[in-house]
Design brief:
- The protein has about 120 residues and is an all-beta fold.
- The protein contains no helices and eleven strands.
- Strands 2, 4, 5, 6, 9, 10 and 11 form a seven-stranded mixed β-sheet that branches. Strands 1-3-8-7 form a four-stranded antiparallel β-sheet, with no helix packed on it.
- Strand 4 and strand 5 form a beta hairpin.
- The N and C termini lie far apart (about 40 Å).
Length: about 120
């Protein structure tokens, strides 16, 4: 059974930090690129960051460049999103995504991040 389980969300003040984790199981994690998306009500889901099957292959959306860091630990089947210097506009539900070159794709259930003073 394929599972992507996010954790680490919550509430934080502007300027603060959170680290999201996504624990994967049920598929060959090391062969999938891993992504974090986010979504706010009434808007499309947007891509935040990607890490390839090679951990050094990382890409970011412009709005998080320099503030967020994506990483993966293939020995733990886990992908992380370190979020620093959080802003109110980072408030969203964050989703973990696994995607394979064959277009096989899996999604987590999402986790809320709330940035407010």
């Amino acid at each position: 059974q394929v599972q992507l389980v996010e954790s680490g969300g919550g509430s934080v003040e502007p300027g603060g930090s959170l680290r999201l984790e996504c624990q994967a199981s049920g598929f060959a994690f090391e062969t999938f690129a891993m992504r974090w998306y986010r979504q706010v009500p009434a808007k499309d889901r947007e891509l935040v960051a990607t890490v390839g099957s090679t951990p050094s292959d990382r890409r970011y959306a412009e709005f998080v460049e320099g503030r967020f860091t994506i990483s993966r630990d293939n020995s733990k089947n886990t992908v992380y999103l370190q979020m620093n210097h959080l802003r109110p506009e980072d408030t969203a539900v964050y989703f973990c995504n696994a995607i394979h070159w064959s277009r096989t794709e899996y999604w987590g259930q999402g986790i809320q991040v709330y940035v407010s003073s």
